[in-house]
Design goal:
By secondary structure, the chain is an alpha/beta fold. The protein has one domain (about 5-140): Rossmann fold (3-Layer(aba) Sandwich), CATH 3.40.50.1010. Helices cover about 55% and strands about 5% of the residues. It has eight helices and four strands; from the N terminus they run βααβααααβαβα. The chain has helices at about 5-15, 25-40, 45-50, 60-70, 80-95, 100-110, 120-125, 135-140; strands spanning about 5, 40, 115, 135. Strands 2-1-3-4 form a four-stranded parallel sheet. The chain starts with a strand and ends in a 6-residue tail after the last helix.
């Protein structure tokens, strides 16, 4: 199954120095690396924009921009935006506040049967209302035993 990767995961891998990552963060970066090798990573333009925003050095911006170009954006349609708005309304009616980017990720994941890879705890709240699948490196790396 393909995986829609959220800004929080990309940031660990691309904007943080490896030596500044704790053990759990390193496992997340390793899982992202494996997904990239398998060709299962998906991204949306708003996540790309979030990653590139705030990069102060021109050289670093260009390097990050060029690195991300290896991952084409998922196409977002009018129907995708409408679905995201409905999901947003569904969550808000249950007292769950959403962000525009997060809820669009949820809508696309549902629409295209994608898992979501994130470290953002808000997605656990969304999952109470929306039947999204969250990618977990721990469960994904466990292989069933052969008898």
């Amino acid at each position: 199954m393909n995986v829609l990767v959220d800004t929080s995961v990309w940031s660990l891998a691309l904007r943080r120095k490896p030596e500044h990552l704790n053990l759990e963060e390193r496992k997340i970066v390793d899982a992202l690396t494996e997904l990239i090798r398998e060709g299962r990573v998906r991204i949306i333009g708003l996540v790309r924009q979030e990653l590139l925003s705030g990069v102060r050095e021109v050289a670093q911006f260009e390097k990050l921009k060029n690195l991300l170009r290896a991952f084409p954006d998922e196409t977002i349609t009018v129907a995708s935006h409408e679905a995201a708005a409905k999901l947003s309304n569904d969550c808000r009616s249950k007292g769950i506040v959403v962000s525009v980017v997060d809820i669009l990720i949820c809508a696309l994941a549902l629409e295209r049967d994608l898992e979501i890879f994130t470290t953002d705890p808000d997605f656990e709240h969304y999952r109470k209302v929306i039947p999204i699948k969250l990618y977990s490196p721990r469960t994904a790396q466990k292989m069933p035993r052969k008898n």
